[in-house]
């Protein structure tokens, strides 16, 4: 007779009837599906259509970030990928970090990294200015008006 060992992940803690492990599992499946669509769309636009990888330069990125559609597209990719990866790391930490203190420190480190990267990435997406005021004319791309 074959027996399967119990998983090492601690039993889901129920908070007012909510099973957080179940919702984490559902999030991984849903975000993974949406990420596949977003990433293949990103690759199609950036690499397949047009001139391929040769077209990707500062002006290409500036043109994309000039439209809210691409800002939202990249924002969704950023947030979903980082939260998806952070949740996956949390699961691995639960599986392999047996010491309670180490487990908590690692999970807090992953949370901090995810939060910092989401904040920085979001700032870049929404504050990107290809033609900053006060920059030397020699440092500006050719499509920027001289200031």
TrEMBL record:
Keyword list, A-Z: Heme, Iron, Membrane, Metal-binding, Transmembrane, Transmembrane helix
CDD domains, per database record: SQR_TypeA_SdhD_like (cd03500)
GO-annotated cellular components: membrane
GO molecular function: metal ion binding
Transmembrane segments: 26-49, 69-87, 108-128
InterPro entries reported for this sequence: SQR/QFR_C/D, SuccDH_FuR_B_TM-su
The protein's name: Succinate dehydrogenase / fumarate reductase membrane anchor subunit
Organism: Leifsonia soli
